[in-house]
Design a protein that fits this description.
The protein is 59% helix and 0% strand. It has 183 residues and is mainly α.
């Protein structure tokens, strides 16, 4: 599965690609936290002994679109603290958190994601699963984490930022060309 840091980098890459003007740092930080937040269910699973079969275990309810929508609604209510409009806060935080479940569904290992909870507790995988993942055991934590980070750097992080920069460059060139053609 993607590492929590990789999930947090996705909204930063999206902001780089899509934003027309500087994005308030509070929004970027909250979006990055929201993208990583579903992995907090790991804490419940391991420290509170939530069984694997529970919808509240890892990749369960916290990874759902419903949880992302709830987080977006909270962000919309607190939009002034994020220095953006309510709609912007809601959409950015919802998309950031929803991206977590989508990325996890694209992994080749682990449990499926309860993305449609509470409508369905079925755990889903995407048909296309290019992201290699695996369990990290405490005994080999450092070498396994470094190996996973190296793999994600080449598979996800660098391509994600390359696409973001390409989109940003394309948008910039297009806007310059359109500005020149206007009378």
């Amino acid at each position: 599965m993607p590492m929590t840091t990789t999930h947090a980098l996705l909204p930063i890459a999206a902001a780089l690609a899509i934003s027309k003007r500087p994005v308030p740092w509070r929004l970027v930080i909250v979006a990055a936290v929201a993208a990583a937040l579903p992995d907090a269910d790991w804490v419940a699973h391991h420290f509170f002994r939530v069984p694997d079969s529970s919808i509240y275990s890892h990749r369960g309810a916290a990874h759902s679109l419903f949880a992302a929508l709830a987080a977006g609604l909270i962000a919309a209510c607190l939009h002034k603290k994020l220095n953006v409009g309510a709609l912007t806060a809601g959409v950015v935080i919802t998309a950031s958190m929803a991206s977590h479940g989508i990325l996890d569904m694209m992994t080749d290992t682990g449990r499926g994601v309860a993305y449609l909870w509470p409508l369905s507790s079925a755990r889903l995988f995407a048909d296309w699963r290019p992201i290699h993942g695996g369990a990290v055991h405490m005994k080999h934590l450092l070498p396994e984490t470094l190996a996973r980070f190296q793999s994600e750097l080449w598979q996800l992080i660098l391509p994600m930022f390359a696409v973001a920069l390409a989109v940003r460059l394309g948008r910039s060139l297009l806007s310059r060309r359109l500005a020149r053609t206007r009378p």
